[in-house]
Each structure stands twice: as C-alpha cells, then as structure tokens.
Amino acid sequence: xxxxxxxxxxxxxxxxxxxxxIQNAQDARNVIGFTPPGTTVTVVxxxxxxxxKISLTAGTKPIVEGLIGKLGIRIKNTExxxxxxxxxxxxxxxxxxxxxxxGMVILSVNRVGVNSVKEFTRELQNAEAKGSRQVALxxxxxxxxxxxxxPLGD
Length: 154
Hints:
154 residues, single chain, alpha+beta
C-alpha cells in the first residue's frame, strides 16, 4: 500500500495530514481517500511517543471518480438491493454541506429509482448529459426519507 511504501507502520498514530489535524480513523480515510492519485502529502505520525513527518504519495487507483466524486461521496450496493449505501462523505463537499452522512441510503436520482452503483452512476450521467446543473437525491436516513438537491457542477 502507499502507506507502507512511505514507511507508515501498523502501530503509528496519524495525527496530522498536510496540516489538517486528524481526530480519528474516519478523518484520515476522508483526507487520504479524497486526495487525487499521485499527490504527495505530509503525514505526521506518533510512533513510540515521538512525532515523525512522512511524505506519502496517494495511490494511483482513484478512490473517487467522476460525478460521484464531485458530489463528495463514496457509495456501495446495499445488501438488500434497495438503493445505494453512502459509505463516506467528504465534509467540505456538496454532500457534506447538505449534511449527508455515511449510513444513509440513496433511493433515487431525479425521481428514478436506483438499486446499484451502476444505476446511480448512469442516472448522474443522464442528468449531466441533459445539461442539469443539479441533481435531486431521495435519501433515507435513520428515521426520515427526504429529497436533497446537490449541484452537479464545480
């Protein structure tokens, strides 16, 4: 992995990435996961009570691609095949600003039901092809089901 190649060890505690304080593993995954492949970041780890700076180059396999990446989310198929599960949300993204969070399920895109990542991606591409500047997601949280409108453009 890129972390191993950079010299980060299993017991290291990541405390900062590119000047951004890391509070937990989710913070680290979000920062690294949304870093463009090939970008070098400075990671500060605590190893055996001492802080160390390590340069890390984000992996070449993009974690977030295309339109889904512009929204600032990662998704996967649900176990029951109903909707797509949000697994990560970048806090400074359109999805993050609308308070979407991991664990929510997207049931439709622009009123078209989606039951897989492939269907979700297809509907985003359809919206973009039609020149839409935004997309309406029908989202299920713990207790509520509601629409969230996110911009498609940068």
